[in-house]
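hey can u check if this looks right to u? its 876 residues, i copy pasted from the old doc so theres a chance i mangled smth
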Amino acid sequence: MRRRLAVALVAAFALAAAAAASAQARFQFDTTPGRLSKQVVPSHYTLTLHLDPARDRFEGRVAIALRVREPMAAIELHAHELAAGRARLVSAAAPRELAITPQPAAQMWRLAPQDGQVITAGEYRLEIDYSGKVRAYGDGLYRAPHGPQGRQLMLATQLEAIYARTVFPAFDEPAFRAAFDIRVRAPGGFEVVSNMPRASRRLEGGSAVHRFKTTPPMPTYLVSVAVGRFDVLTGRAAGVPLRLLTAPGRRPQARYAMQASKELLPYYSAYFGVPFALPKLDQLAVPSTRWGAMEDWGLISYAEDMLLFDPKSSSPDTQRDVYATVAHEIAHQWFGNLVTAASWEEIWLNEAFATWMQDKAMDRFNPAWEVPLQRRVPVDQAMAQDAGAATRPIRSGPVSETAVWDVFDGITYAKGGAVLGMLEQWIGPDVFQRGLASYMKERRLSNATAGDLWHHMAQASGRDVLAVTSSWTDQSGFPRVQVSTACEAGRTRVTLAQSRFSTSSAPLPAQRWHIPVRLLQGRHSSTVLLSQPQAAVELGGCDDGPVLANAGGIGFYRVAYEPAQLDTLTARFAALAPVDRVTLLSDTFALLQAGEVAMPPYLRLLSALPQVQGAGRTALWQVAGAQLELLDRVFAGTAAQPALHAYARSLLAPQLARLGWEPRADDDAQTLQLRAGLITLLARFDDPAVVTEAVRRFDRDEAGRGALPASIRAAVIGAVGRHADRVHFDRLLARLGRTEAEEDRQLFARSLAAGRDAARADELLAACLKGSAAPGNVASAVPGYMALESPFGELAYRWSVAHWARWAALAGTTSRTALLPRAAAGFNDEAQAARLVEDQRRAMGPDGDVQAAREAEDIRLRAAVKARYATGFRPE
């Protein structure tokens, strides 16, 4: 069954890719995929909501102006978990009462005239009264308790992907753009915000009615409303008023995000050649309940730790994450909002572009962060998924609404962004920007497909862009480029051969890509478009040094060198450019996992890392650290694990000793990040000196005798949690229970989950399940943290299976699909992979198959690497 599932997924995605490749048409509303009829088209919603943060239910009324294009017996639209009231269809003739028939499986309502007559073609207003429920987790309309004992309340919305239908009856598909007039009645003591500026506020008894200006046409998933008591930080950029809204008392922590917003908004307006389209931009930090961030037009919402930064306690990683998230969500105001993907099948147009633009902006305004190198870890994670059987094309093909979050993954974000980077490098940055500006202007306030984008890129570049890009967006997987060199008549002849890179035990179909391969030899460089199985090119002289492929690291492919070439590059490792060092290390480890490179050459490359000083050092150790962590999970429970720990300590400890624990005034951003990363890794690999020093510093902080520096605070707390005794476990658990900072909730929960005591791991899981440890979004993440960080992945998994319904209630609709796969992230045995697939099907039905198959594929890979290398692992 395990193998059949993997092969079935491969076959399904192959069919989807074939369909996608033949369907790179430009956007047409009538042919866009979706469940709703295209014969009923909304143009305007008047939405009235009665909201009170203290109540578990809300009332609403929606009036939808729509056009019926042909006679129909009934109108169907989306509505889910709503209680229907009166419904009428109003036209120039007399209003007609409608009977509502819920279709729960489809999350739709069917509205048919009670008189039994057909609805003729024409213009109508559909009026519906209804009520709904406020959710306890971050989907739909949800409550966010905060403050002491959670006594303060906030309401907010998360309507992507298919949660608008839980707040109002709607044509809840991206292609159905319409304008919105939003009105909210709320208790008079609360503020209300929405996508547009407020037009009026009228008091009625103890309530206030807030009316907002009309939005531009937009899809339903971008509607946003929040009710609460907010602290407000104001600013202005590119002529646009800016506000950052926080829970009371947290406004100072929004200053960094405001600084970022002031940099980003003018930059994006200039780059896209189109100004920000709305008259204001609000950004809201939602406490306790929210996960992630959402680009709602004019009112972006974030989990607090993704927007708020406290210089006294937040780590450099948090600072980078805040900037990256703000850059990503503001980019969406163009990619996704101004121009919207036609359907969920094309969601990469939103997310890949926002990822690519986020990196470009971060590198522009924060060059010291070395963004081109730092992106290597997420790209490697996407490549790991794409190298197995449980992958899919970027353009996914048909998407099930109830499993739509399956396509919000590394393939969409990291691979999609990397493919855009390859295209930009191939046609040139200026040409790429012109094509993008043309696309944005022509498709503004409308929808788009990949065909629209490639049309404008082809016009700008004069090249057959579709032929190149479709090989990356419309088929799964990625290539391995084999590099061979020979000296002929004093010149270096480079032979390139492409094949599909795979780490899967399942047979995968052979494929061919159009690969822009950038070659470098000394001062000689060349870009070859490798579209055939093999090609050859002359480069520099035979004495000009080794040849690098994928120079600059932009390409989404692995490079395989002959053993002698790899030895030469390893010997010259410190002399390579920083990005080429990171790429070589990344490719070598991937080939190790695939069984194409043996362990000794990889370890020789790792041993060359200490030679590297200066630029790129931090990213290099980050990549190495991620690889060592993966090997730790691979070798868990085997005799190789202690040997790996000893090797890791011998490699890492001298680097920390050179840096020291105490931050210095002249430390740059990379040094601060490297120090914290080394402390975290050495604690994972049981370095006794690091654990002792971390506990000493933690105790001094706890006693008020010396505050932990912000740059190492998270690393120290993580080390203490990983090796906590009873006293320190209790202290951290108490901190988790009383903190109101989302960043600290995540930090304390992950630190506790990494502990090495089985009884306390059991205690932590019980406290999370009871709700006494942390809010649901944090508590539900603990089994996954435990699987990744501790020796008790089996315990976490058993708890997750035995109490799945209760964990699912904590996680919410969106996150529950990943509960069991995340709890299995420490497994390294084929039988465990099969168990996950079966358990997930029982818990989730077919909607859980894709995420289970992905993790099962990872488990099988870890099992294969364990079988290949665990016996006899003896690093020198």
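The chain has five domains: 2-30+336-473, 41-229, 479-555+557-604, 621-723, 757-876.
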